[in-house]
Amino acid sequence: MSRPDRSTRAMHQALPPALRDAVDDFAEHLSRVRNRSTHTVRAYVTDLVSLLDHAVRMGCVDLAELDLSVLRSWLARQRTTGAARTSLARRAASARAFSAWAHRAGMLPADVGAALASPRAHRELPSVLRADQAAALVEAPARRAPRTAAPRSGEAPTRQAPPTTPPGSDDTPTRQAPFATAPPAGAAKDAATEAVPLRDRVLLELLYATGVRVSEVCGLDVGDVDHARRVIRVFGKGGRERSVPYGVPAQRALDDWLRRGRPALMSGHSGDALLLGARGGRLNPTTARQIVGGYAETAGLPHISPHGLRHSAATHLLEGGADLRAVQELLGHSSLASTQIYTHVSVERLRAAYRQAHPRA
User: Fold this and answer.
1) Which is the catalytic residue, given 201, 213, 262, 311?
2) Residue in 20, 233, 307, 349 annotated catalytic
3) For residue 70, what is the domain's CATH number?
């Protein structure tokens, strides 16, 4: 079973053996057959353990006794404890997925979850950068290094100096932003220190140029880049493969990184990873998020994450006239409904401009 939090593990252990086995088998199915990510499996397992714990409290000691009334009672209890509509929708989806699997496996006499309705999740429009703001962000590593993290309570603030240790210099996630303070003035810059801004530039360029997820860009290998066609091969959710084009600025950043940056950071455990941390390992998505946020702060831009850059890329593509189906394929959305939210973003930006500029708005 995937490693959920401590309370979920305790509830899992308290379940009757047959129910525990069902949870473990379902997790194995999600991981090996459905090829779901570790995070997805953990979320499904957490929801399922909560559901079965509720079922046991209602007197269900055997999985075959699970029925629609138990599922509805569980969701109602979640709602009364303050769960958001998005959380309720996800938990209902988890219950339906488990019910369908258990019925196919012969554990349930009927797919009781098929009739389970869930509240429609309210989708907020994602925040996006303007095109000029996105350009300023991806060019930031060439101009300046991001600010250092704020000192912890009890620590003296460190005076900002022209940094020679750029952001994201650690390829393992940390609680602090990875923007190390500068070494003493006059310290020589080594090749690895010079390489990190090149890595940061190619990270930002690829995120914005392709709209890929942060896990996808960090998972790229050197062989996934087709320089001749300016295309990267991406493995998305569920292991689905797609090819995504990128432009000339990203190509220049890639060329600089592969020629001058990556060789300086390579180590015995670099493997084929395209993006590396300062210790030579594959760049961690947590560190990548900190790099993006740090450069946005330094450039005086609104707070933005890698997913915000993905939103920005999709919105700018549609505003530039790209076909919705093409954007869906580029982003790796399995459903067109996921892509259509960006059309709403464009309309809202148009309305905002209208309200601001038109005298009779």
Assistant:
1) 213
2) 307
3) 1.10.150
Q: What digits encode the pLDDT tens for the residues 249-258?
A: 999 999 999 9
Number of domains in the chain: 2
- Rounded Cα–Cα distance for residues 135 and 204 (Å): 10
Give yes or no: 333 in active site: yes
Contacts with 359 (C-beta within 8 Å, 6 or more apart), sequence order: none
Concerning whether 213 is annotated as a catalytic residue, the answer is yes
**Which of the residues 262, 310, 311, 316 is marked catalytic?**
310
pLDDT in tens, 221-247: 999 999 999 999 988 776 778 888 999
CA dist., res. 261 & res. 29, Å (int): 41
312 three-state secondary structure: helix
Where in the sequence is the domain holding 305, given as residue range(s)?
131-149+162-356
Mean pLDDT of the chain: 81
Whole-prediction pTM value?
0.64
CATH classification of the domain holding 314: 1.10.443.10
The reported pLDDT for the residue numbered 352 is: 67
Residue in 237, 279, 289, 349 annotated catalytic:
237
Dist. CA 167–CA 196, nearest whole Å: 7
Q: Which two tokens stand for residue 75?
A: 């969701």
**212 and 84 co-located in one domain:** no
Does the annotation count 237 as an active-site position?
Answer: yes
Q: Which of 9, 144, 279, 333 does the annotation list as catalytic?
A: 333
Q: Are residues 291 and 199 in the same domain?
A: yes
Known active-site residue 342? yes
In this structure, are 209 and 325 located in the same domain?
A: yes
Same domain, 174 and 90: no
